[in-house]
Write a structure and sequence with these properties.
Blueprint: H1 11-14, H2 29-47, E1 54-58, E2 64-69, H3 72-75, H4 82-94, E3 103-108, H5 112-121, E4 125-130, E5 154-157, H6 161-183
Parallel strand pairs: 3-4, 4-5
Antiparallel strand pairs: 1-2, 1-3
Helix pairs in contact: 2-6, 4-5
The chain binds zinc ion.
């Protein structure tokens, strides 16, 4: 079982983490650029009516080798989360199901399925934007990334957290509004 330790909010509490999984180095420009690319992917999901989550995978040299956005509805596929779509593309690009040098950037904290896939792919690093208090498995609901698995991936939280979270909040706000409009089409109220 995991320790139940909180994610790396208080840097001090995790200092000296023996397995080196938690890294406190500041994010660099390349990290920000990668998360911006993941945000662009998330916007593509929104265009299709999907919950806007996007991901990209970079190889060890920082080259983009995979992109993906959430497409569970259009693909009729419960596994078609942004991370899985991007990992599949990256693995095909490298011709290997293991990606030990690669990093995944995703706008929302990965769920248990995606965190499991990350560990199976033996990624070196995962960076996510917004926390997911409902299904996040990198510290929020579960901490699969800290499980005593035979591979450890460095996990970093909170890159462009505001932007990543705001995109999701806007999406759900608009969806609620259009659901309301559908329920009361005769109200005649001006619509935004
Ligand atoms: Zn997932």
């Amino acid at each position: 079982m995991h320790s139940g330790a909180p994610p790396d909010e208080g840097a001090g509490s995790l200092a000296g983490d023996a397995d080196g999984r938690v890294c406190q180095e500041p994010f660099g420009e390349a990290d920000v650029a990668a998360m911006r690319a993941a945000l662009e992917q998330a916007k593509l999901a929104w265009k299709l009516g999907e919950v806007p989550v996007g991901a990209v995978v970079l190889d060890g040299a920082g080259k983009l080798i995979g992109v993906g956005f959430n497409r569970t509805i259009v693909d009729h596929d419960p596994t078609a989360h942004a991370e899985i779509v991007a990992l599949r593309m990256a693995a095909k690009a490298l011709g290997n199901y293991r990606l030990p040098e690669a990093s995944l950037y995703v706008t929302l904290e990965p769920c248990a399925m995606c965190t499991g896939a990350v560990l199976h792919a033996r990624l070196s690093r995962v960076v996510y934007g917004a926390r997911d208090p409902k299904t996040g498995a990198c510290g929020s609901v579960l901490d699969v990334s800290a499980s005593p698995f035979n591979h450890q991936t460095v996990v970093r939280a909170g890159l462009l957290e505001q932007e990543c979270g705001e995109l999701l909040r806007r999406f759900f706000r608009e969806r609620r509004l259009s659901a309301k409009r559908l329920k009361a089409p005769e109200s005649g109220e001006p619509q935004e």
